[in-house]
């Protein structure tokens, strides 16, 4: 019947991201002094992709992911330079990064990672509040669709990714 044919195409495709939502997520950066501080205080004007928090640090999905699974870990204190980090903050960031890598290896079979800080505009830093990137790397990164076709990663709309990570993060604790 014609009707069933048309619903087949009208139905949302669960494995593909919602372009509408992604546009919203990637819209103009909110007018706040610091996006990361906004995430920490759960400012309603800041898209909040937090996965987990402690007294000192936050783990979050990256709003502008380089790859699916791109996370950020950062201290709650608004510090701009690496040298200002305390041992306690550094240890927590290390532990969160280790946990993220363990999860990505086990669940998504990720075998390559870039970890690091972009400090200062000359280094590509766009948010001055210090934060560590955890970027999973995949063979054949020609595009997201290639990644999708060859792996188990099917969720990469940022808010869907956040939901999934919140669940996984609790399971692995
Ligand atoms: Zn800040």
UniProtKB/TrEMBL annotation:
Domain HIT: start-end pairs: 35-144
SUPFAM superfamilies: HIT-like (SSF54197)
Keyword field: Hydrolase, Nucleotide-binding
Keyword Zinc-finger: no
Domain of life where this protein originates: Bacteria
Cross-referenced InterPro entries: AP-4-A_phosphorylase, FHIT, HIT-like, HIT-like_sf
Pfam families with a match to the protein in the record: HIT
Catalytic site positions: 131 (tele-amp-histidine intermediate)
CDD domains for the chain: FHIT (cd01275)
Molecular-function GO terms, alphabetical: hydrolase activity; nucleotide binding
Motif (Histidine triad motif): 129-133
Binding site for substrate: 62, 133
Protein name: HIT family hydrolase
Native source organism of the sequence: Leptospira tipperaryensis
